[in-house]
Amino acid sequence: IILYFHILTRTLFGILMDSNPLSVYVMHPFWNLVVKFLPTWLAPNLITFTGFMFLVWNFLMLAFYDFDFTASSVGHEHVPSWVWVSAGIFNFLAYTLDGVDGKQARRTNSSTPLGELFDHGLDSWACFFFVATVYSIFGRGESGVGVATLYYILWVVLFSFILSHWEKYNTGILFLPWGYDISQVTISVVYVVTAVVGVETWYQPILWHFLYRDLFTFMIIACSFTVTLPMSLYNVLKAHRGNTLKHSSLYEAFLPFFSPVLLFILSTLWVVFSPTGILEQQPRIFYLMVGTAFANVTCKLIVCQMSNTRCQALSWLLVPMAGVVVLALSGVAISETLLLYLWTTFVILAHIHYGVSVVQQLSDHFNIFAFSLKKANSD
Questions:
Q1: Per residue in 202-216, pLDDT tens?
Q2: What is d(CA 297, CA 314) in angstroms, rounded to the nearest whole number?
Q3: How far apart are CA 1 and CA 20, in angstroms?
Q4: What does the radius of gyration of the chain's CA atoms come to, in whole angstroms?
Q5: How far is 145 from 152, CA to CA, in rounded Å?
Q6: Within 13 A of 15's CA, how many CA atoms are on the CB side?
Q7: Quick check: helix, strand or coil at residue 374?
């Protein structure tokens, strides 16, 4: 992977704005208390990575008991209650660790651009794990959410995430979306409630024919289009009026959206025109492929907005993906499912390789270890 690291010589710490009342008045005081119990030798990046792995474990745990998202449907063996309790605990632990990693960095005087990139980079991948894991609560049955509907909901979440970093790319300020803290606390509670009352509770309508699945869908879409998107546009327009916008050209300002939109087009073409109905056959793997490819594209934007460099118009990963989609839709591939598995494996390995390469280069440049507070030449 070609790494365009002007960040090595032009690193800038971004300004972060968090005005969510839940975060300001409840969670930050809680995190300030928690961080006091952490040993001072504990590296912030290790905290970040541990939190992320809790989300991965939740995904793997639910994949074992509900691989095709049918376990919550009527007539199927449901996910054990202890799994839901574990998912709630692990999700809240991940959320807490994501909140204290920065505080630990400031507490130990170890704040670095690597930490910021590591945190936001893993957050971009975490978006998929949140959505896929929550999906198992409702599933794809008669009272659940269809796999195609969930696919578009996933994209709403992904674009909501990238909006924040698009803001920072244009304004230099990262405005944290209000929906994040509320959703994390809610998700953790819902997991535990599901363990107590059972998934059958979510079959019941809230009011008339309005089901819990409809509330789930409505809240995500409404939050994105009535809060996240308007606030992002407002912040960028405000910077434009104040002559503080970093990119005066409309083309340059919207350049970060090119690769995510192209990824959306390619994956949607595959979904709509798949000869074998690949999304119906392998929804979990398809979501994993899309979420990982999105994280790879987003990480490159994060590098650009951190280093104050121009965004790359096209992510190289989308070039072979276009070929894969053509191969799948043409029916030339012996097995579309096998093709999806092979491509997903490639995307995951490519993204991990990119992440390791970035972390290694930054660690070498700043003379630090990624998961230790020791200096690289301290010995």
A1: 888 888 888 888 888
A2: 9
A3: 38
A4: 21
A5: 11
A6: 6
A7: strand
As given in the structure block, the two tokens for residue 53 are 């792995």
The set of residues, in sequence order, having a beta carbon less than 8 Å from that of 254 and lying 6+ positions away, is: none
CA distance 54 to 51: 5
Q: Is the pTM for the entire model greater than 0.85?
A: yes
What is the rounded CA–CA span in Å between residue 258 and residue 290?
16
Task: Give the tokens for residue 182.
Answer: 């509320």
Written as six digits, the tokens of 115 are 């930490």
Q: Are 362 and 8 in contact (CB under 8 A)?
A: yes
Q: For residues 66 and 61, what is the distance between their CA atoms, to the nearest angstrom?
A: 8
**Distance between CA atoms of 177 and 164, rounded to whole angstroms?**
7
Q: Provide the CA 187 distance to its chain's centre, in angstroms.
A: 15
DSSP string computed for 65-118: H-TTS-TTSTTSPPPPHHHHHHHHHHHHHHHHHHHHHHHHHHHTT---HHHHHH
Residue 273 CA to chain centroid, in angstroms? 26
Structure tokens, 340: 């999806």
Phi and psi for 280 in degrees, rounded to 5?
-70, -35
Tokens of 300: 């490159």
Average pLDDT over residues 160-165: 89
Tell the burial category of 332 from Cβ atoms under 10 Å away from its Cβ (0-12, 13-18, 19+). exposed
Nearest CA to 374 among 75, 32, 31, 45? 45
163: amino acid identity, one letter: L
Cβ of 244: how many Cβ atoms within 10 Å?
A: 12
Q: Which residues contact 95 (CB under 8 A, 6 or more apart)?
A: 51, 184, 185, 188
Over residues 201-250, the pLDDT tens digits come to 888 888 888 888 888 888 888 888 887 888 888 888 888 787 888 877 88
Rounded-to-integer distance, Cα 64 and Cα 62, Å? 5
pLDDT at residue 170 greater than cutoff 60: yes
- Tell me the C-alpha to C-alpha distance, in Å, between residue 307 and each of 14, 153, 174, 247: 9, 31, 14, 14
Q: Are 303 and 358 in contact (CB under 8 A)?
A: yes
pLDDT surpasses 50 at 101? yes
Which residues, listed in sequence order, are joined to residue 350 by a DSSP beta bridge?
none
